[in-house]
CCHC-type domain-containing protein
Amino acid sequence: MDTSASINFAVPNASASGFVNFNLIPILTGSNYKQWRAQIEFYLQFNQEMDYCLRVEKPAELTENSTVAEINAHAKWHKTNRMAKSVIKFSMGDIVRGSIEEPETAIDYLKNIAEKYKESDIAEGARLSKMFNELKFSGEGNVRDHLLSMIEINQKLRDLDIGVKDEQVVHMGLQSLPIAYSNLRSMYNAQDKKWDLNKLISVCCEEQERIKKETPMILLLEKPKEKKEHKYKPKKTTNFKAIRKTTDKEGSNTFKYKCYFCKKVGHMKKECSGFKAWMAKKGYDKREKTPEEV
């Protein structure tokens, strides 16, 4: 269970008396560090001067010769430091809180948290930079949404201190458009006055409407679908016996057998008289003898 969810700093709203509600601070989970840091600093500034320990260095230890002002300043610093550390500690999730060492002072606590998320900021910056440079408009959809996406990505890069100026965003935005917007790019490069982001969006939207009107309408007629044979349907087999019989009947006058024994054309081997004589000579003649032969 997240202990931060059960803590409620019941303070008035900022619009009523200069205080802000602790519940408005987002729980630090790892991906919302920038937002969390801004809300923490805002809360500490407007609640009981808890940012005093962040603005003033830690006072020296008290001695017998310490003045009343030094004693009061010492007490105030330590009190605001304890309160600020509590706010920082309980505005983090359990996993994040357990991974960060808790130092003696609140300002060091914030430094440790910043160092923890420094590496993740570098990776996030590289990812956003690649997305910003590779973002292209295909011509489909709304060009306004495309340009707003580029502006949003650059704003995130600016939060990481690696964003570009608006003039560069205008240039990159025009370069990300398809070839149909080439006239718009040429017009921009030919003039001396540069556009701001609002001008870029307005001009590109007008150009998109002009392109839509000038593009001829093409009616695509749907071709009739061809009937495909079922892939599991058995193929028709050829009856070679029937073909052979038909061929024998039709071409009996032209086709002649060849004997494989005597090599003569006109009869088969089993009908060859020479083959029969050879079989009788070898004693392979198994036919029944006639009464004359007996």
